Amino acid sequence: MPVTRLILTDFRSYASAEIEPGSGFVLLFGENGAGKTNLLEAVSMLTPGRGLRGAALSEMARQSSDGAWTVASRLGEVDIGTGTLPSAPERRQVRVNGAAASVNSLSEWLSILWLTPAMDRLFSGSASERRRFLDRLVLALEPSHAHHAARYDAAMRARNKLLAEEPWDEAWLASLEIAMAEHGAGIAAARARTVAALDDQLAIAPEDDFARAAISLEGWDKADLSAALQANRARDAAVGRAIEGPHRQDLAVLHRAKQMPAAQSSTGEQKALLLGLILAHAELVSRRRAEPPILLLDEVAAHLDPKRRSALFGRLEGRGQVWMTGTEAALFDGIGEASRFLVQPGQITPD
To answer: Would you give the distance in Å from CA 164 to the centre of its chain?
Structure first.
């Protein structure tokens, strides 16, 4: 479902703001630093996690506020809000139609994908960044993935803490390792299903200006995790972390036509591969969930040549709600019907 109303209170640079975007292209233009990315970040907070910047919740509050912020939205007939309280700036609150709800339940209402300039070097960056990227792709297809990821991380943190203490509580360690194995298996299975389905989708993607990727999972091989954790306790205690588990997996990406690792491709090719991957995933989500995901594309048009820009607009036409930012309205030439907004510091004006 598209966002038909977005209301911000004390979020980033906005004391208050409200917009009513349409169901297709939502174009935000204005000078650098005007607050365009802040709007995309607000929309991204309608899903579990820390949004497209990965920031701490307390960082999202307007500097001169009391430390609290809210993002409220309307999706069809559903009202969804999230934010923090002054008394608990790092604890996120969620309400659906006025009733308290869990953060993870947000993924049941809508799926959101995003692409930001910080992701341009995703393929040559750290494995942890690629895992976070992969988990967002999984979450858009399987909302239960958030539950398994949260439970796994909680059990792993508790185990790491327990291993730092002596003597070890053997019974408690065993229960944590069983929990890690159970939820780790759920994480690994969901990732494997998503990677396989997305690789199939990429194989049939159009041969256009966005190079097609081939993807696979590397790293941990889904062995008996509970037994491995028990066997590795001494070594894990020495290094301060678990050395086996789905948190050691990585997303491997190849340029399909050249059979070359994406990390070895040119900067332009990496950008095209990433865009092609996002577009293919959007197609997959649309088919699986019977509705397209919301796309948040930050400063994408400015970094594409005119030919690729035109190809991107063509691929996005009629694909649901797509939010795009740019410093100039001219960057969106070629897009027909759209909701257009001029963004100035702390202010949004329909154009």
So the answer is: 32
Name the DSSP class of 292: P
Q: Which residue has the tokens 């001029």?
A: 342
Return the percentage of the chain with pLDDT > 70, whole number: 100
- Find the DSSP H helices in the chain: 36-44, 127-141, 145-163, 170-203, 225-231, 233-239, 267-289, 306-316
C-alpha angle 142-117-23 in degrees, rounded to nearest 5: 55
Label the pairing between strands 294-297 and 322-326: parallel
CA 267 to CA 301: how far, in whole Å?
Answer: 15
Q: Partners of 339 in the beta sheet?
A: 26
Looking at the chain, the number of H-run helices and the number of E-run strands are 8, 15
Q: Give the tokens for residue 158.
A: 């508790």
* Cα angle value 213/189/278 (rounded, 5°): 30
pTM of the model: 0.89
pLDDT tens per residue, range 106-120: 988 888 999 999 898
Task: Tell me the CA distances in angstroms from 246 to 50, 225, 266, 269, one per residue in order.
Answer: 20, 9, 30, 29
Beta strands 294-297; 112-115: pairing state: parallel
Residue given tokens 């960044």 in the structure block:
129
